[in-house]
């Protein structure tokens, strides 16, 4: 028995600090929320290591997924009420696509793993590919629920994630430069980090959103609300997502997992007693079921156990990560400055393996995309709709956005053990010469030119 159009007898609501109430009206949405794959997202932080910098940022990918779903639901309601095909013609909204959009919105992050972006880099996973796998694999509860809508429905939802779905309005609703995903995470991350400058007028943006045959645009008279969104996004990237301390903790996490990976190649027995769920990834042969066993808590439990391991690098990195002992950093103009090699040598002479205690980290490489309309695709453009229905790209109409997009955002930083510049008494005499030589390379938090 299918339930494609089965509505709940009474609307279900979830109380949310960002959106007040999140409304659920379809049985399939409630069933998806209760599936084990979506519930797993409760155990994965939305912002990974950022809570080590902004202590309130403990919110989960589950809460974010509900928020993206609700913004998408509101957009569908607005489109159906004001811009349906019946009223708006060929550029209008076809409400038969609503359920696909709602399911894709709820499930868009279901493939994220623990500390997802760092984990992806080390173990060569891909959260979007894993999202598609979770949606389309008969072994998951998500697939069984979607397939109960109608045969082939999971593949429809997955095609929104891969951006091949037949309706570009649905694709851009979930994935574009101003989509339900970004609108929720900016507001949610601003709320939980306590950064007021990350907020923007969501109500006004939803008031001026417009469908057209090629996707989604925004009414010209709502340009200032969209500008506000772009400025808020810029501020969040610079002040929160690119924060040097959060990146320092990401570097520690990356080096910790790297060390475990290296030790496993030498002696797999080290991890068989207490890190069983991670072994498929250490040996680079994992299944979807293996992946779904992992969450932040599982990794943190293993890290606690690694603190007791005989390998001094593994135990020390685990201690630094779990107990918030971030690496220090300085801004550098380029990653290949020969002075950095000299600094790494001094770090090694002071007793630290530079492979695990130094790093070059560029915020340009972080998994956040600023607004780059010059790339020339709809994914990187925000379109404003003029009175005659013609479209103009945002930075062509807004001097403010034009000025922001013309700036180079981000930086390159060199990370090193804080002991190199904050000596403890037991080592200061032994390595004093190296500490003093190292300090000569630093002035005002930057590499000396």
TrEMBL record:
| Superkingdom | Bacteria
Q: PANTHER family, from UniProt? A: DEOXYNUCLEOSIDE TRIPHOSPHATE TRIPHOSPHOHYDROLASE, DEOXYNUCLEOSIDE TRIPHOSPHATE TRIPHOSPHOHYDROLASE SAMHD1
- Domain (HD/PDEase) ranges: 57-195
Pfam families linked to this entry: HD, HD_assoc_2
Q: What name goes with this protein?
A: HD domain-containing protein
The scientific name of the source species is Enterococcus xiangfangensis
InterPro entries the UniProt entry points to: dGTPase-like (IPR050135), HD/PDEase_dom (IPR003607), HD_assoc_2 (IPR045509), HD_domain (IPR006674)
Fetch the CDD domains from UniProt: HDc
